[in-house]
Amino acid sequence: MEYRQLGTTDMQVSVIGVGGYPFGPPLLDQAGTTAVVDAAIEHGINFFDNSDVYGQGQSEDLVGVALEGKRDKVYLSSKFNLLNLNGKTPRQRIFDRCEEALRKLKTDHLDLFQPHHATPDHQHEELLGSLTELVEQGKVRYIGNCNTAAWRIQEQLRMSDDLGFASFMSTQNHYSLLHRHAEVELMPFCRANQFSLLPYFPLGGGWLTGTYRPGEPPPPGSRADKVPTGIVTRLRSERVDTLIPRLEAFAAERGHTLVELALAWVLSHPEVALALTGLDRPEHVVSNVRAVDWMLSADERAELDAITDWWDGGAAAIETTGPPPTSGS
Prior knowledge:
It is a single chain. This protein has 329 residues and is of the alpha/beta class. The protein has one domain: NADP-dependent oxidoreductase domain (TIM Barrel). It is built from 12 helices and 10 strands. Helix 6 (186-192) links the parallel strand 8 (168-172) and strand 9. Helix 1 runs parallel beside helix 11. The longest helix is centred in the N-terminal third of the chain and has 16 residues, at 90-105. It is globular, with a radius of gyration of 20 Å.
């Protein structure tokens, strides 16, 4: 297993992280969750991410049981949201959610605590002030962000500097060979600010595992069969149908699987601290961890960039390495 620093923290996280989405109904019960958690730790995975909405609200409970006696081997992350406050203040929601996560996960602190979605209806000060209190109390070690834009993170970092608040260290956003939008602004921002990207759906929600086939319905018993409104349905398109066989061939020609290719490509970006994968079988742990051994060459990355390019605007980029343009250019 390879380990990388998360932001500017003292956390050395495994480059494969476990997302809590599969733990709980309709996918995994306690026995299934424990089997995956044990396999992950056995193979050197030390980062487990969760949320109160995963597994119909049961994911944290199942992970808490699975990690009894093993808390010192892992980093725990969870999330909150500021939607539908139902009369609570943002601070009350944040504090209540933190206490709930600590209780369910059977721990006295979270290593990372994150708003699940951007909060444009609330001031940065409301968010950061409350999170700073939790850090000062020792209930949260570090804070991260999710599903937000680089410009919002920049505003938040500036406010943290100005007011002495805790600073965000990372952001979770959708990123894979099939969904490369983070490259436009977010990843350059991360690179310039020692800020970590924690991609979710690095396997395209399952499209980059070979489970789902172009033009065919999800196999019986698969995650998309059990949760038909999920990411597999949303990503299905003519472009994805065309890309899957090309990427499978690319990997096979080099003696690798599509899973190994998808994860190796995400991890080839230095802005990425870890890739969050939704593991629902112990054998999937093994197949994901194998990706760590494949170091893509510059030529392989260039070929993959060409295969999966999602826009035709490359020629519109401004050249910044030469002299400044003359008047009228």
